[in-house]
């Protein structure tokens, strides 16, 4: 079984998120999604509309997602890859190069962002 992992806040879920999850799942058999905890978002000075528990509930209902785990800090990625026997680490290409250190542990794939949609755009449009 080929296992894939991706990370994010996944707040204000939109079709760009769904396309990312779909493409990540296509790379393997089992998709783990690590979502930022409320405490980690505070450390990053990032405010989420939905709580960790609500974001987790939403993601668990998506057919591409097999497992949701908490992301509590920047440093846990190597441990997550090892603990969950991950074969492929996936992120959007706006992070290109940032996670290349994981290549010692798994394949690293940067997927193109979905054009025309982002959480930032949604927030800007609503302001």
TrEMBL record:
Tell me where in this chain the Cytidyltransferase-like domain is found: 5-123
Q: Which Pfam families match?
A: CTP_transf_like
Q: Which InterPro entries match?
A: Archaeal_FAD_synthase, Cyt_trans-like, G3P_cytidylTrfase, Rossmann-like_a/b/a_fold
Entry keywords, A to Z: Nucleotidyltransferase, Transferase
Molecular function via GO: glycerol-3-phosphate cytidylyltransferase activity; metal ion binding
| Gene Ontology CC | cytoplasm
Give the enzyme's EC designation.
Answer: 2.7.7.39
GO biological process: what's one of them? teichoic acid biosynthetic process
Instruction: Please name the top-level EC class of this enzyme.
Output: transferase
**How is this protein named in the record?**
Glycerol-3-phosphate cytidylyltransferase
């Amino acid at each position: 079984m080929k296992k894939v992992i991706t990370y994010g806040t996944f707040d204000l879920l939109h079709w760009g998120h769904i396309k990312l999850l779909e493409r990540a799942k296509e790379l393997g058999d089992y998709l783990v999604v690590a979502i930022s905890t409320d405490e980690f978002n505070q450390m990053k000075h990032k405010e989420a509309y939905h709580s960790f528990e609500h974001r987790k509930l939403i993601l668990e209902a998506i057919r591409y997602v097999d497992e949701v785990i908490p992301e509590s800090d920047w440093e846990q990625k190597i441990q997550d890859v090892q603990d969950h026997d991950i074969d492929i680490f996936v992120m959007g290409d706006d992070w290109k190069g940032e996670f290349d250190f994981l290549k010692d542990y798994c394949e690293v794939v940067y997927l193109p962002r979905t054009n025309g949609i982002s959480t930032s755009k949604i927030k800007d449009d609503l302001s």
